[in-house]
Amino acid sequence: MAKKGNRVKVTLACTECKVRNYDNMKNTKNTTEKLELNKYCSTCKKHTLHKESK
Ligand SMILES: [Zn+2]
């Protein structure tokens, strides 16, 4: 049974072109730092580091 309140929606933005490419869910209980994921950016046309943004 999933508990409410720990999972929040975050937006991941490319660190190179600043385009927000991805929405993700994170568990604030398990992940206290900002999310950083290597993902494909369709604007840069390559994999770039995406960071959590508001
Ligand atoms: Zn990009």
Task: Describe the protein.
There is one protein chain. With 54 residues, this protein is mostly beta strands. It is 0% helix and 56% strand. The chain is built from no helices and four strands. The protein has strands spanning 7-14, 20-27, 36-41, 46-53. It has a four-stranded antiparallel β-sheet, with no helix packed on it. A hairpin with a 4-residue loop joins strand 3 and strand 4. The model has no long low-confidence stretch (mean pLDDT 91).
| Low-confidence runs of at least 5 consecutive residues | none
**Strand order in the largest sheet:** 2-1-4-3
What characterizes the major β-sheet? 4 strands, antiparallel
Average pLDDT works out at 91
Strand content: over 45%
- DSSP summary, beta strand count: 4
* Helical proportion, percent range: under 10%
Shape descriptor: elongated
Q: Which class best fits the helix and strand makeup?
A: mainly beta
Distance, first to last CA: 28 Å
Compute the CA-based radius of gyration: 12 Å
* Cofactors and ligands: zinc ion
Number of helices: 0
What series of H and E elements makes up the topology?
EEEE
List keywords for this structure.
54 residues; mainly beta; four-stranded antiparallel beta sheet; 4 strands; 0% helix; 56% strand; binds zinc ion
